[in-house]
Specification:
The protein has 320 residues and is mostly helical. It has 15 helices and no strands.
């Protein structure tokens, strides 16, 4: 039914499509609307508290994964993350916490439960499943645990949200799984009919995903690059690089906590793909580019015989 947000933002396009969120987030919104008495201000405050809890989980897991307090503080104080999760609450930071939790946990049932919960918020999160296990037996075990978690959660949530969330599977550009329109394929096939663009988008996604999975199974792609590549496939092949924030944030956080990229480069990457709060991301991107130019100038000045530390770290971060 129409809630406080749909009625207030009735002039915005996304109020005319099925909600792109899965049943777990739908149930959370039911609870928030009930507790807030369907009052917008109270509901937004509660949403911000939920996002703060998600940020706290992210910071905790970054510290536990990396063992470095300063990395956790960098994430907590990152203005891009704060502006796009707490200032304007979305599901992004909650999904990031669930993904980092699944990455950190060693028990299969814990990983499956966290990944299943993420999948019931945004189904696209399930593309990470094969890369959270290291053997085929592990993939089967994790898949079974995830399916079990999905089934149990669906049964628990049915009295609250029923199956009204199913139309989201064909919600089109708004985030549905079966109705996405790829911006990439729209550029590649500008005059093609919509159904051709739709089919080509999924063919491209399946082909690229298959290559990543094959490289990972042949141990030519490590877990971290495989997770990052799989996460980028959804926005790149299905909805366009700029749209799904919830894939960008976990990737950046994983890169940071694994020390695979310098923090400023990670901030610059975050800045390039964020759309809201444009002034801060643009400032961060400019600062990062100035820093890179300074390092490059110093490198040239010192001679090319010795690479500066940032270049070494960058080379290691992109090495498969």
């Amino acid at each position: 039914p129409v809630d406080q947000y749909s009625s207030l933002f009735h002039y915005i396009w996304w109020t005319g499509i099925p909600s792109p969120y899965g049943p777990l987030w739908q149930a959370l919104m039911v609870a928030i609307n009930f507790v807030s008495g369907n009052q917008l201000l109270t509901g937004v405050i509660i949403l911000k508290i939920v996002n703060l809890a998600g940020l706290a989980g992210v910071v905790w897991y970054v510290y536990r994964i990396s063992g470095k307090q300063w990395l956790a503080w960098v994430v907590a104080a990152n203005p891009v993350v704060l502006l796009n999760s707490v200032a304007t609450p979305h599901t992004d930071i909650v999904l990031a916490a669930l993904l980092l939790g699944a990455y950190y946990q060693s028990r299969t049932w814990m990983r499956g439960g966290l990944l299943g919960a993420a999948g019931l918020i945004k189904p696209h999160m399930l593309v990470f499943l094969p890369f959270l296990a290291k053997t085929w037996r592990g993939v089967l075990a994790l898949g079974s645990a995830t399916v079990l978690a999905l089934g149990v959660l669906l049964l628990v949530l049915k009295p609250v949200v029923g199956f009204d969330w199913l139309p989201m599977l064909a919600a089109g550009q708004g985030g549905g799984v079966l109705g996405m329109e790829s911006l990439l394929m729209t550029w590649l096939l500008p005059k093609a009919p919509p159904h051709t663009v739709f089919l080509a988008s999924y063919v491209l996604f399946a082909a690229c995903y298959g290559v990543i999975l094959w490289l990972y199974c042949r141990r030519r792609l490590r877990q971290m690059p495989a997770l990052a590549a799989a996460g980028l496939l959804v926005p790149l092949c299905l909805t366009g690089v700029l749209l799904p924030w919830h894939f960008v944030i976990p990737i950046v956080l994983l890169l940071i906590c694994e020390s695979r990229a310098p923090v400023l480069l990670a901030l610059a990457f975050t800045a390039l793909v964020m759309r809201s709060a444009q002034a801060v991301p643009q400032l961060l991107a400019i600062l990062a580019l100035l820093w890179a130019a300074y390092e490059l100038g110093r490198w040239v000045y010192q001679g090319v015989s010795k690479r500066p530390p940032w270049a070494v770290r960058l080379a290691e971060s992109i090495k498969l």
